[in-house]
Amino acid sequence: MLGVLLVLHGSKIPEWKDVGIKYAEYLSRYFNLVEFGFLEFNKPTLSEALSNLLAKGANKIVVVPLLFATGTHFKRDIPRLLGIDGDEKKIQYMGKEIEIIIADPLGFDEKIGEVLVKGVNETYNKNY
């Protein structure tokens, strides 16, 4: 069964968790197993979220970094926290081999650009 693991950076500000909850709820409309985890500061950690997916029966996991670009967190921290070494994209769980695929960061997308335009306009209209 496919599991989707959303990765958020995390912050000392607790509202980060609200973002994770809302994206997980949204994706749950399309996928049965969705969890989110943080790279730092907030809970659940990325490792805890992975464990939750595995406990629910995920045998293939697509990791979706909610990051805009490739950087240290993407290249080093996410694989390390998931227990992936080098090019190997599999982990062992209860005697089973679990495939983990890490999606690319969000990058540029016109739909995200539209959300930014909307935010600018709403902010401007509230203040003027």
Task: Walk me through this protein's architecture.
This protein is of the alpha/beta class and 128 residues long. It has a single domain, classed as Rossmann fold (3-Layer(aba) Sandwich). Helix content is 41%, strand content 23%. It is built from four helices and five strands, in the order E-H-E-H-E-H-E-E-H. A five-stranded mixed sheet has the order 2-1-3-5-4, sandwiched between helices. The radius of gyration is 16 Å and the shape is elongated.
In brief:
With 128 residues, the chain is of the alpha/beta class.
What are its keywords?
128 residues, alpha/beta, elongated
Strand order of the largest sheet: 2-1-3-5-4
Structural class: alpha/beta
The first-level CATH class name:
Alpha Beta
**CATH third-tier fold name:** Rossmann fold
Mean pLDDT: 94
End-to-end CA span: 50 Å
Number of strands: 5
Shape: elongated
Order of helices and strands: EHEHEHEEH
Helix content: 40-55%
Structural topology:
Layout: E1 2-8, H1 15-27, E2 33-38, H2 46-55, E3 60-65, H3 72-82, E4 90-93, E5 96-102, H4 110-127
Parallel strand pairs: 1-2, 1-3, 3-5
Antiparallel strand pairs: 4-5
Protein name: Sirohydrochlorin cobaltochelatase
Catalytic activity: Co-sirohydrochlorin + 2 H(+) = sirohydrochlorin + Co(2+)
Family: Belongs to the CbiX family. CbiXS subfamily.
